[in-house]
Amino acid sequence: MLTGDDNAKVVLFGLKEHVAPLPAIIQIINGEAELTVGEEAVAGKPGTWIQMAAKTPHSIKATTPLVMLLKRP
């Protein structure tokens, strides 16, 4: 984590396949990416919104400069 408080956190991370212990939502804001969620490949583009259960394997590979939102409880 780069910085954070009770309301927000700023995190720099690599996007190789991993499993998060908490559920999460990914929303692509700008750019494009190849996403894999479980066994499903998804083309990420602006407006793509994915909700994942806890412990779901996932990865993101940006194919253009990418801005995304990651929301966790």
Query: What average pLDDT do the residues reach?
Result: 85
Number of strands: 9
* Name given to the CATH architecture: Sandwich
Helix proportion of residues, in percent?
under 10%
Any idea what the CATH superfamily is called? Jelly Rolls
Q: Unreliable runs, pLDDT <50, ≥5 residues?
A: none
Please state how the strands of the largest beta sheet are arranged side by side.
3-8-5-6
> Topology as H/E string?
EEEEEEEEE
Overall shape: it is globular
Classify the fold: give the CATH topology. Jelly Rolls
Question: How many independent structural domains?
Answer: 1
Tell me the structural class.
mainly beta
Radius of gyration: 12 Å
The helix tally amounts to: 0
Distance between the termini: 16 Å
Strand count, sense and barrel status of the largest sheet are: 4 strands, antiparallel
| Quaternary assembly | single chain
Assess the beta-strand content as a share of residues: over 45%
The CATH class is identified as Mainly Beta
